[in-house]
Recover the amino acids of this structure.
């Protein structure tokens, strides 16, 4: 089997060059191009051998190094007055630019370490009706269906986790669920649809949902929610 | 709307302010709290909020609330972040509970992610080609990760060839790094400064033989390899 | 995972529990709190949690926290709702808090509105029947809201049966989302690419269905909309 190795933490060719420079205490403005190119190519060969997917990025830099090396070997123009640009200038600039962000990343890492455990307040939705005058609106059929879809997905996930694949007729009728639902609402005053069907099987959930629709139609329960896609709250009207 | 905030005594003022900040799930800027509590203050006599106006009053109330929170040993405070004030747990408690809550914000970021994020934070709006030019590596995946963690977002399109998407940081970024605004980012070093400081070498490795080099390198790579995946349809290795 | 909760003294236990409930974005059932703090207690000797087991211990801790909150005059309490525990502001602050929240709500577009807006933005000119076919639900109200907020406008009539009205986006739409032109909208294909193959295995989002695209757009839009000032003379919010 062929494997491709993902180096998700690898920073790339510039990082490698900076590593050489640091390791060998090289002067960044006077990089021994021949030596560094040689070692860089060693790395590239190794990467090819290991079939690393980042090798393409390294080849680009490798060819740049080879170009610089070639230009350095060219005889210098005779007149010493004309200042020939050092072929390494662009490379140095790129390395320095990269190094800035590498350092900035380290500073960010420190900040992250320091702040990642500030857990900011987030608001559980919906805000409990008994405590805060809610901004509720009546829930629409879409809201109900969305809630049902969410619940069913959850039930399916639970079922697939436990590898249960029994398909049976609902062990209860819509009528029975209507009664159950009314009792629950009476008992709690209000309850979310999510809670109502907690742990139920798919078909029972659907039966409960149909019962809910019936009860809404006959105005025996009301439904509301704080915002679209929030939990549906079933309450005693 | 505005309520007559000044009719309340200081204790009640603190409680109202605390309830407001507590009930919000995003940082509340002082300005908008002030507007909410006092209406348009520019038309009012500012001397009633002496010595330093509405915002100073609110700020000192927040300080008092935080003192009370500390005295009563609550595990959270009001912090200034992302241009406003928001409740947050004390980090020591955040650490204990974050593993349970599986909060994305508390998850570690890889070095590649931090590096890319730094480039985006300092150069925004910035395109993928620009990021890749600086990093020298393809950055698709890491940009995806940052987008998914909501640390960056698409902010537009560049006018350059191909009109690449431009990226910028989000409010989540500010919160995750405890920044009040982008101006609070640590200063980026200037190129000139980098020029003046030669590299310090800390580890000297002497290379002896090619074989040894290979082994060392392989070991190094091994450390950095985070995942190995079978390739589905690839005929031959590169 | 679980932490060794019993190693802490009662004050610290309260603080950890309080931080946990504080940082959660949904009501936490006692059962799941217990599981986090103590691991699987069914296998443990329940007598250490005497007299009434883990849940009774947690319940009495919550009561103690609420007493502390009352003593220190905090404007919120931990309440039981929806089978779990969460923080809520006290009813006497409800009015001011909800009027603030309403102010905030007016600034946000509902998810349904964003979803519809995304469809109109990408498929304009588009008729209501087409929008409804994609969303799978009636969309009259949400289209009304978008028309009122001037994010969309009528751009003509379709040639199909019934000659339904066709909708398109407006300059207000572009301004709201910081776009120079419709060409600046991220292309659906680009979004798909961005959402492919995340870097970390745990955050895998495979983009298969249109639903996901919609959600991405919504998330993006949501982020941008929250930073936009409320529109003047608004009849009703989405």
């Amino acid at each position: 089997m062929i494997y491709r190795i993902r180096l998700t933490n690898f920073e790339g060719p510039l990082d490698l060059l900076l590593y050489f420079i640091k390791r060998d205490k090289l002067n960044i403005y006077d990089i021994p191009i021949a030596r560094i190119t040689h070692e860089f190519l060693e790395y590239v060969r190794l990467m090819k051998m290991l079939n690393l997917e980042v090798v393409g990025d390294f080849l680009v830099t490798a060819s740049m190094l080879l170009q610089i090396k070639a230009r350095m070997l060219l005889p210098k123009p005779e007149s010493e007055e004309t200042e020939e640009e050092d072929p390494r200038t662009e490379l140095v600039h790129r390395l320095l630019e990269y190094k800035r962000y590498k350092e900035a990343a380290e500073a960010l890492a420190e900040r992250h370490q320091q702040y990642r455990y500030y857990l900011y307040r987030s608001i559980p939705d919906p805000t409990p009706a008994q405590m805060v005058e809610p901004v509720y609106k009546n829930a629409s059929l879409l809201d109900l269906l969305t809630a049902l879809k969410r619940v069913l997905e959850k039930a399916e996930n639970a079922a697939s986790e436990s590898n249960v694949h029994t398909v049976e007729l609902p062990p209860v009728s819509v009528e029975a669920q209507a009664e159950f639902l009314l009792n629950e609402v009476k008992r709690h005053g209000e309850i979310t649809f999510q809670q109502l069907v907690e742990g139920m099987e798919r078909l029972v959930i659907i039966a409960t949902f149909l019962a809910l629709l019936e009860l809404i139609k006959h105005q025996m329960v009301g439904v509301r929610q704080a915002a679209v896609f929030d939990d549906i709250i079933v309450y005693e009207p | 709307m505005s309520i007559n905030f000044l009719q309340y005594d200081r204790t009640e003022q603190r409680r109202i302010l605390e309830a407001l900040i507590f009930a919000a799930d995003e940082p509340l800027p002082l300005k908008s709290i002030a507007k909410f509590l006092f209406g348009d203050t520019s038309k009012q006599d500012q001397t009633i909020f002496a010595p330093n106006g509405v915002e100073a009053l609110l700020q000192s109330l927040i300080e008092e609330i935080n003192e009370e929170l500390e005295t009563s040993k609550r595990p959270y405070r009001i912090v200034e972040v992302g241009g406003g004030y928001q409740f947050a747990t004390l980090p020591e408690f955040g650490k204990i509970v974050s593993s349970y809550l599986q909060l994305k914000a508390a998850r570690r970021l890889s070095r590649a992610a931090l590096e890319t994020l730094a480039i985006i934070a300092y150069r925004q709006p910035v395109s993928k080609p620009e990021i890749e030019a600086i990093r020298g590596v393809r950055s698709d995946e890491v940009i995806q990760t940052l987008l998914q963690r909501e640390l960056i977002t698409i902010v537009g399109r560049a006018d350059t060839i191909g009109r690449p998407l431009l990226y910028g940081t989000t409010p989540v970024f500010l919160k995750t790094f405890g920044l009040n605004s982008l101006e609070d980012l640590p200063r980026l070093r200037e190129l000139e400064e980098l020029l003046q400081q030669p590299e310090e070498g800390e580890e000297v490795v002497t290379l002896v033989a090619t074989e040894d080099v290979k082994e060392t390198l392989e070991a190094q790579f091994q450390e950095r390899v985070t995942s190995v995946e079978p390739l589905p349809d690839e005929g031959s290795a590169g």
